């Protein structure tokens, strides 16, 4: 493995660890504040944390920036702003569907259902005229079996929270593809900062209409919000953008999907949540689907 690929893989693995534990923070935070309030505060906090990082990282780039023409600078700013806004909208939708859904399901189940994006990413690629190998279709079948075991109960009904988290997985797939498109063209940390501020602004608007935010409740939830804001947002999503640069989006999504396994461990260790045998088999099927989706196709 090339040194650059190894570095990118390590960054994405660290991201998966941070996100896996963040499911616990998100679940605990719901005991104090509403989902839009939680995402508003965490996203704004994540964006603010990155501002000093941007100034620090850009100190050595001033000489290079002076060589670029004014027209190129405007084009770069336009691409950066467009990428940040698109990422922010996708992130806002995905994170709020996830945050609402996690109130009605366990941390472990939410982690594995969210990890469906590993299968959804290549399927969405079909609409972008990218071919899918037979292994992809087998992984889709396994993912459907895994979702059935995880989500469908004995009464053949699916939980409300599970549906919301599955929608979140689709939206995160879109987010991954947007990041893949823009990350090679712009400064990853700057785009990450913009996406958080956009996500926070949109979540804040929804908060004002759907919830009754109270500062006292936010202060009570400061620990899970701080972890979700600083680590999951400020550190995690930035590592995703930096780590994904130059990486195949499907391989990147495989590494990121390890957050599902970490979420189960974190839910068990920190919250005492366990899965039934049926749900455990669903997790095994889902993880098999994740692995199969990444097997290289045979060259014709």
Summary tags:
single chain, 300 residues, mainly alpha, globular
Tell me the radius of gyration.
19 Å
Q: Largest sheet at a glance?
A: none
Mean pLDDT reading: 81
Structural class: mainly alpha
Oligomer: single chain
Structure overview:
The chain is mainly α. It has helices at 3-29, 35-57, 62-66, 70-101, 107-114, 117-126, 134-151, 160-182, 188-210, 215-220, 222-244, 249-256, 259-271, 277-292. The longest helix has 32 residues, at 70-101. It is globular. It starts with a helix and ends in an 8-residue tail after the last helix. The model has no long low-confidence stretch (mean pLDDT 81).
Brief overview, please?
Helix content is 78%, strand content 0%.
Question: Can you lay out the helices and strands and say which pair or pack?
Answer:
Elements: H1 3-29, H2 35-57, H3 62-66, H4 70-101, H5 107-114, H6 117-126, H7 134-151, H8 160-182, H9 188-210, H10 215-220, H11 222-244, H12 249-256, H13 259-271, H14 277-292
Helix pairs in contact: 1-5, 1-11, 1-13, 2-4, 2-9, 2-11, 4-8, 4-9, 5-8, 5-13, 6-7, 6-8, 6-12, 7-14, 9-11
